[in-house]
Design brief:
- The chain contains six helices and no strands.
- The protein is mainly α.
- The chain has a domain at 41-100.
Length: 124
């Protein structure tokens, strides 16, 4: 008769003892594209790297302007303004992430609802 192996109970860590990491080496940040090596700061495509400025610009555009802008950016335009705006913002965030190194703050604050905090707090 074989013995069943019992799983070792792991020690439960307190939140104060835990640490979080993003896995990026902040000290040795290297440009990742040739354009960055040649000095491109990423401002050419969107004219800004600040999310609030871009959101304001997108909100001021008409649907036809949004469609033209999305074509310029490389996104297939759709008729639904909300879907198109979300796609543009996602593409903008992706672009900003390519041009900002680890530890560089883009002044973008997270807007977390109380319901989200309650859900995240359930795992404690």
């Amino acid at each position: 008769m074989k013995k069943k192996a019992k799983a070792k109970a792991s020690k439960k860590l307190k939140i104060e003892e835990m640490s979080q990491t993003h896995g990026k080496d902040e000290e040795n940040y290297q440009p990742t594209t040739l354009n960055q090596i040649w000095g491109d700061d990423g401002m050419g495509k969107y004219n800004t790297l600040k999310a609030e400025e871009y959101i304001k610009t997108v909100n001021e555009m008409s649907l036809s302007d949004l469609r033209a802008h999305s074509t310029k950016i490389g996104i297939v335009p759709v008729d639904d303004r909300e879907v198109l705006t979300n796609r543009l913002l996602a593409e903008f965030r992706s672009h900003v992430n390519k041009y900002t190194g680890p530890g560089q703050n883009t002044n973008e604050e997270l807007d977390v609802s109380p319901e989200t905090l309650k859900i995240l707090g359930e795992g404690r």
